[in-house]
């Protein structure tokens, strides 16, 4: 998402740089560390990590930020509780360069409560200062912004949703056949995302078990990388429900394989406990696929208002009823078309780039006005 936004900003004539590390899950990216790499419209600098790796510690990155930050007009920091974001905020304050912080859902009450003691220490040492002295907090939905209000942060917020390139989501050529032979003749429920505790996969497993007992025509496809072997727990729940033979785990899908999954499914499911935006939901709607999401997916209001699917509470029985309602809907194509229209109107990269540039300019204008006062 960072790369796509930077690409759109570059298309609009801005000069954009990305500073990051070579972290790639438990491994490392095979990328040059001694020179910038051109990715889309941005120059990307990668830096090696050291211990403690859990905080993505990189002293070479910090030294590079110390030199680079003063040469930039504005800095956009992604995520919290990590060394790179804290180093960036520190050097922005030291150089007098305004910065935005995008929390990536970490201030949502569900995520904010996790590992509270450890986070409290980090907040006391660094994070509250990073947030309070930011020029703005970047939220990807109004719901995400509202969920942070109990924290009492005085930093102004800007809401800019990410997007997709709608034209890239048509059915790929040569994928008329179902990508999974075992689903032939069945109604396919698709989950696409990380196999992770916050995605509500315990709810989805119970919901599918309940649905499959009533309907012999359903099949569940779970596509995505496995976080910390969480997929083992999901497989266990499905086996306990006696429906493991009606489920397919694909691993991570990309490119035409991912598009084929969207286009061959009948409904997309994301019953998350916390989701600051939900890019996969937007991708599903861009493909004309009806969706069933929890009311913790922060674009649920937009989905409900558009009639692009069903919004349900975080409850397995409610998820099961929502899936059944979409599968039994007499006009699912109309539901999918409403979702496609919602994406075209609200969630595209050209729209996101324009709104983000407006936010940057407003911050810089405020800074100039204060300097002249």
């Amino acid at each position: 998402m960072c790369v796509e936004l930077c690409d759109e900003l570059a298309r609009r004539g801005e000069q954009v740089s990305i500073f990051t590390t070579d972290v790639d899950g438990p491994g490392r990216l095979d990328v040059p560390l001694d020179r910038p790499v051109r990715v889309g419209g941005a120059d990307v600098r990668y830096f090696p990590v050291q211990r403690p790796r859990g905080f993505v510690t990189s002293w070479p990155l910090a030294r590079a930020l110390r030199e680079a930050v003063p040469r930039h007009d504005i800095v956009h920091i992604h995520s919290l509780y990590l060394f790179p974001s804290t180093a960036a905020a520190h050097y922005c304050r030291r150089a007098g360069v305004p910065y935005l912080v995008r929390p990536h859902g970490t201030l949502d009450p569900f995520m904010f409560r996790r590992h509270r003691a450890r986070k409290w220490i980090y907040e006391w040492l660094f994070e509250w200062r990073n947030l309070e002295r930011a020029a703005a907090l970047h939220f990807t939905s109004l719901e995400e912004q509202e969920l942070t209000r109990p924290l009492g942060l005085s930093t102004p917020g800007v809401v800019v949703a990410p997007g997709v390139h709608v034209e890239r989501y048509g059915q790929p050529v040569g994928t008329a056949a179902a990508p999974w032979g075992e689903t032939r003749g069945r109604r396919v429920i698709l989950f696409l995302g990380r196999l992770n505790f916050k995605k509500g996969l315990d709810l989805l497993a119970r919901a599918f078990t309940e649905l499959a007992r009533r309907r012999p025509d359903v099949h569940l496809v779970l596509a995505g990388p496995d976080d910390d072997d969480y997929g083992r727990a999901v497989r266990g729940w499905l086996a306990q429900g006696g429906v493991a033979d009606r489920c397919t785990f694909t691993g991570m899908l990309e490119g035409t394989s991912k598009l084929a999954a969207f286009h061959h499914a009948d409904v997309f499911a994301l019953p998350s406990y916390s989701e600051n935006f939900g890019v996969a939901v937007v991708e599903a709607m861009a493909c004309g696929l009806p969706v069933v999401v929890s009311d913790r997916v922060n674009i649920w209001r937009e989905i409900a208002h558009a009639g692009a699917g069903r919004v349900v509470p975080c409850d397995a029985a409610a998820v099961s009823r929502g899936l059944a309602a979409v599968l039994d809907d007499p006009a699912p194509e109309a539901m999918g078309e409403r979702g496609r229209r919602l994406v075209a109107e609200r969630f595209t990269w050209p729209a996101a780039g324009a709104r983000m540039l407006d936010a940057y300019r407003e911050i810089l204008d405020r800074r100039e006005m204060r300097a002249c006062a």
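The radius of gyration is 22 Å. The mean pLDDT is 95.
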